[in-house]
Amino acid sequence: MPSDGNEGLEPLDGAGARSLWSGSIAFGLLSLAVDLFPAVRSEVLPLKLVDSAHRLLTRRYFCPQHERFLARDEIVRGYEIGEGEHVLVADEELESLAPEKSRAIELGKFVDAAEIDPMYFKRSYVLTPAENEANRAYRLLAETMERSGRAGIATFVMRGKEYLVALVSENGVLRAETLRFHDELRRPEEAGLPLGVTAQPRDVDRYRRAIAKLAADEIDRDELADTRTAKLRALIESKLERGVDVERAAAADEEQDEAEIIDLMEVLKRRLQPDEREPARGDRGATRDDDLEGRSRAELYERAKALGVPGRSKMSKDELVRALREAGG
Amino acid sequence: MARAMWKGVLAIGDERVAVKLFSAVQDRAVRFRLLHADDGVPVQQRLVEPESEEIVEYAETQRAFLTPERDLVALRPDELESLEPEPSREIELLRFVPAAAVDQRWYDRPYYLGPDGDSRELAALAAAVRETGRIGIARWVMRKKEYRGALRVADDGVPMLITLRPAEEVIVASELGAPTGKPLDEREIAMAQQLLTLLEARFDPTQYRDEYRERVLELVKAKAEGKVVRHEAPRRRRAEPDLAKALRESLEAERRRA
């Protein structure tokens, strides 16, 4: 199995409709509430694991001692200090270690983004205004930053980890590009690489000519496409067309399956332009507040937790819907 | 000398340079384990068929693609194997582009390149790449996986390959609609621009440290020693609803500081 439960604070489910982080951006005394979403898909065509009878499998936490499955609220985080010896750390403790940074991305400096060495860039996220009130401040910051062409540098804490970010504005949308911390990068000497080797001018000329032959102004995006993805897509489409090895999957029950089906692009568009995307009736993927069936188990669980529904961790999605209706939520 | 993670041969037109790849990153994340609260035993992740709650071993699993319409397309191991690229040692340079042509969001993992044999050839290539100021776009197969990368020279003259994400994995910024609303007040934009200008600086990565990681480790140490750890109560920051007022006061505060 790829993961051994050592995955830190990442949730089991992938990029769903929920944001990875909610907080605010602080620019001087200006503060605007934002939600943070991934801007990178981990895989274009993610494959599922199935058993020999082609039934979808999910991952669940399991206690080998009690030999039973565990709900999220039965699990705590521990830091190993010795063989099988752990110090327990609660979420609240982690958050209280940096209460300010857990809530706000404070833009302290603005730099020329082209000055940041490419080796620092880690991953891209999109920031969306969290509330209607944040809309104007969001647009003001995005416009100002886009005109200046500068990136705001800040550090903040998300899911038990501190991130260095460059906030950039493009086409009216704010993005957070996470950067590696200085000490996460090795120096060439540490990797044992030779420095200061003298090159022969004749050899340099030879390579300069070879480079000149391959010079181009632009990248060809097709060259950046993954050929495996294209081949995999062709294979899947051909099987679908011929109806070979195609089966109807069981109804979605697990949060994991649901979260992954949600199209990240749709989620982002809805968050960025909520007014123009009022859920038309029957609009696929649109969720009204009273449309409990349209929500993922994870969302229902969160609601049940907020309402204190007993036994929620062991409930299926349908049971959660029923319990929430009864609880008036 | 650190262990090379892979060996390959750069192919630039007819030129060939044998290289070794060394990871340029070191993982410093604090790792937690997930434990069962009742007994402190590390939990396992198991694969389960949800209907029967039957545990399935990884070795017995197969792969399938789930369509949005919930059709499940099963893929046999031999079919997946046929998608694998031909193994090769060649790192083919496709083109050399201006640095600005590479979207920063494509950058994934950096590797240093070291010589595999004569160090003068690689040094000559690095010098030539540096002189042109261009970035080489490379393609290679490493451990049954296809990679794209950017060949460039770090500030200290060491050549690097930074792997690039497949284009399809990155959300296209122009496809996202920006939030809309009433036109912004130009005076507010002017004030925001002034504030931004006051905060302009050069990017100095050495100024930033992962202080949080240090605090987590301190917390763990204190708890291990049985010390009582006091919680700092989180304070809420109140948003100033009047943007112009917030900007004016920020400017005043920043000017005083400068």
How would you describe this protein?
The complex is a heterodimer of chains A (329) and B (258). With 329 residues, chain A is of the alpha+beta class. Chain A starts with 20 loop residues before the first strand and ends with a helix. Chain A is built from 10 helices and 14 strands. Among the domains of chain A are: 21-59 and 70-77 and 89-184, Beta Barrel (Ku70, Chain: A, Domain 2), CATH 2.40.290.10; 260-326, no CATH class. In chain A, the strands form 3 sheets. In chain A, strands 8-1-2-10-13-12-11-9 form an 8-stranded mixed beta sheet, sandwiched between helices. Chain A is globular and about 80 Å long. Chain A has helices at 91-96, 99-103, 134-148, 201-213, 221-224, 227-242, 255-261, 264-272, 297-306, 317-326; strands at 21-27, 30-38, 48-50, 58-63, 68-69, 75-82, 85-89, 104-106, 109-112, 121-129, 150-158, 161-170, 173-179, 246-248. With 258 residues, chain B is an alpha+beta fold. Among the domains of chain B are: 6-27 and 84-168, Ku70, Chain: A, Domain 2; 186-230 and 239-257, no CATH class. Helices cover 24% and strands 31% of the residues of chain B. Chain B contains 5 helices and 12 strands. Chain B has helices at 77-81, 119-132, 186-198, 211-224, 243-257; strands at residues 6-12, 15-23, 33-36, 44-49, 54-56, 62-66, 71-75, 90-98, 107-115, 134-142, 145-153, 159-164. In chain B, the strands form 3 sheets. Chain B has a 7-stranded mixed barrel with strand order 1-2-9-12-11-10-8. A two-stranded antiparallel sheet of chain B has the order 4-5. In chain B, strands 6-7 form a two-stranded antiparallel ribbon. In chain B, a hairpin with a 4-residue loop joins strand 4 (44-49) and strand 5. In chain B, helix 3 packs parallel to helix 5 (243-257).
Structural class of chain A: alpha+beta
User: What fraction of the residues of chain A are assigned to beta strands by DSSP?
Assistant: 25-35%
Shape of chain B: extended
Q: Which range does the strand content of chain B fall in?
A: 25-35%
Largest sheet of chain A: 8 strands, mixed
**Quaternary organisation of the protein chains:** heterodimer
CA-to-CA gap between the ends of chain B?
47 Å
